[in-house]
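Pipeline run #58 for the internal structure catalog. This entry was flagged by the ingest filter as a single-chain record with no existing model, so it goes straight to prediction. Upstream metadata was stripped on purpose; only the residue string is passed forward. Reviewer on rotation: M.T. Logging verbosity set to normal.
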Amino acid sequence: MVELKLGSATVTRIEESYEPNFEAVKFFPAWNADVVRRHRDWLSPNHYDEASGFLKLSVHSWLIKIGGKRILIDTCVGNHKPRAYRPKWHMMETRYLERLAAAGVKPDEIDMVMCTHLHVDHVGWNTRLDNGRWVPTFRNAKYVFSREDYDFYHKLDSDPLKGPANGGSFRDSVLPVVEAGLAQMVTGAQALDETLKVEPAPGHTPGTIAIKFESKGEKALFCGDILHHALQVYHPDWNSFACLDQDNARKSRRAALEHCAGTSARLMPCHFGAPFSCHIDSKADGFAPRFDGKF
């Protein structure tokens, strides 16, 4: 289990899956063999499977425990969710909740769930199947959603020609939370408490948010899909196939890297390979990840 200290907080990675799961040349349009050659010493085996040509991406949540609060950031794909368009995620059966329990937390003890955006692999455990109905998994939590993302996908989901949104995840993993009265919609930049604040980071989705954390002078940035892969630290101009607004995705990615490099905030992504988070160093020509030995 990956666990680290940030000021007064304990932050734990809750794994759902970690495997070669996306073909690199399809995931990143700018992918090329020269990049593999230049970065081979650290890419394999934790970030890239050269034999298959697939990126090795983790899908995980971050659990923050601080001052009696338990906060979960991004909730992966979820079990029993019909995702036929992506076979690796279709009707999954994982030990995610058991791993959460191993970190000392039961679903009813989660106080807040924060979704950096509303894509399928960041909202799945928001709900669970109960007697044929999707119900909130964390029934005592407030779920923080971007209002802009919610409005965008609600409109898309309601369009008979374009819905269901996000492969059905809006209907089975977002709407039940809203209907249960557990959603807290946020707009713009705002502080949620003395340690957490959200800031707009549009691009990957219209309402993607960056989650900034600080405790006792130690800082972290939970970036969701602002960055998917450590190679994007070296190549902040690289967008994935899933970035809706290419220009703003690049701007938000660079802003995240500049923040981490300028403040020593630890970058806390949801998909990087082991050791799953890093610091960011400024270089003459850009940035570089610094993976330390804390894990």
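catalog note: The mean pLDDT is 96.
catalog note: The longest helix spans residues 246-263.
status: ready for reviewer M.T.
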